[in-house]
Amino acid sequence: MPELPEMEHYKLLLLQKLRGKTVSNVEVNREKSINVVPEVFLNNVKGHQIINIERKAKHLLFYLDNGHVLLLHLMLGGWMFYGKDEDKPDRTIQIQLSFGNEHLYFIGLRLGFLHIYNSKADVEKELAGLGPEPLSPNFTFTEFMALIEKRRGRLKTKLVDQQFLSGIGNCYSDEICFHAGTIPKRELNELSSSENKQLFESIHHVLKDALKHGGYMENPLFKGDTLTGGYNNLCKVYDREGESCLRCGSKIIKEMISSRKTFYCLNCQK
Questions:
Q1: Of 42, 67, 149, 219, which has the maximum CB count within 10 A?
Q2: Active-site residue, 187 included
Q3: Looking at the domain assignment, is residue 114 inside a domain?
Q4: Tens digit of pLDDT for each residue in 20-39?
Q5: Partners of 269 in the beta sheet?
Q6: Domain count, the chain
Q7: Is 35 left (phi over 0), alpha (psi -120 to 50) or beta?
Q8: Residue 226 backbone dihedrals phi, psi, to 5 degrees
Q9: 58 counts as catalytic
Q10: The Formamidopyrimidine-DNA glycosylase catalytic domain covers which part of the protein (predicted)?
């Protein structure tokens, strides 16, 4: 599932491609992927310009010139492709937004969605339960300590809790714990001051490094896109069960924690 680095990466690329462009046509092939009837969706999107794109947690927000906002969550298996019809992947397209002879294809939206809201305030209300953005300039170490004060739960469980911190999922929770040298089944309230400081620094390091390399989702966003997915081969523990730890040479372990697959090195994560 795309996480914060992937969605921030997509936002930056799509801003270059779409900002200022007008939606010339809309196709909805799966009604369950939207939150209104197709006619209402089309009438409020077709003919309108995309004036900005923002990211919030694992969501993208497409702002239209009529005040409406499209809220995207790719969820598990969802992805996008932008380009001409002859370049699109040979996959079922759930939604298509056209911009002349180029199109933004939404693929694999079986669990994901592209919902439309009447205003930015409506979207903010919908996302009000999300926790702080870990890469926000306002999210300081002091704010982090205030957030975790008196919080309980395993480290893995809390890192993927979107009401605790927004945007982190299975992959980056494991990579953060590895970078911090802390085993993901540690209890959050048992971490020392120095471990909390390292955890905070590791959150920033891993998320920024993943964004720099295009995230770990491998499907290119457009023809010739060589950056997207570049972090996949840089993952230190995620999805590397049985492989050698790049830090100490021990075997990477896979374990289920709170029904989530979790990867770590038992030797160098304490």
A1: 42
A2: no
A3: yes
A4: 999 999 999 999 999 999 99
A5: none
A6: 2
A7: alpha
A8: -105, -5
A9: yes
A10: 2-112
